[in-house]
Amino acid sequence: MRSRHPVDPRVANIACDANALDLTGGAADLLVHRFRTLLSEGKLRLVIAAGVRDEVQNPQTPREVQEAIVPQIFNLRPRLTLSQNDSRFKVRVILQGNAAPGRHAADASHLSEAAETGCAYFITKDRRILRKRDELASVLPPTLTIVDLQEFFEIFDDFATGDT
User: 59: buried, middle or exposed (CB in 10 Å: 19+, 13-18, 0-12)?
Assistant: First the structure.
């Protein structure tokens, strides 16, 4: 993970991909449960991109994920400025790479909305996003850090124990 001068996640806006809170039956489920607990206790401030909210409301999304995501603050998808459209295009081009056009447009939108709403963290399990985060750093604000849930809690715990 690259260091971008992290902000204390206990006081920051946090965004997440719809997949970030999926349970897989593995050890990472403990982190998902911890994240959900902190959300329910009001110790984290999650801002949900409109597209993520739409994805989570799909009837096939596990109920636990819907319960964690749907009640959170969400972006209403205001009209985009020329600058926002330009930024979103740059993010989309990086994520698309050699994939079919439009294949990663939703992910690009989620990341862009996190940046536009002032989020300090974007949590995801998406390997493509994680693999391209250094390249994405060139078009996203330096205040947005892309992490997986393990990395998020490493930062969270550093701040909680005063190590940062």
Answer: exposed
CATH of the domain at 27: 3.40.50.1010
pLDDT digits (tens, 9 = 90+) for 42-100: 899 888 766 666 666 667 766 766 666 655 555 555 666 777 777 878 988 898 877 66
Amino acid at position 4, single letter = R
Inside any domain, residue 7: no
Closest CA to 11 of 121, 113, 117: 121
What pTM value is reported for the model? 0.78
pLDDT one-digit tens code per residue, 116-132: 888 999 999 999 999 99
Residue 91 contacts by C-beta under 8 Å, 6 or more apart in sequence? 108, 111, 112, 136, 139, 140
Give the number of domains in the chain.
1
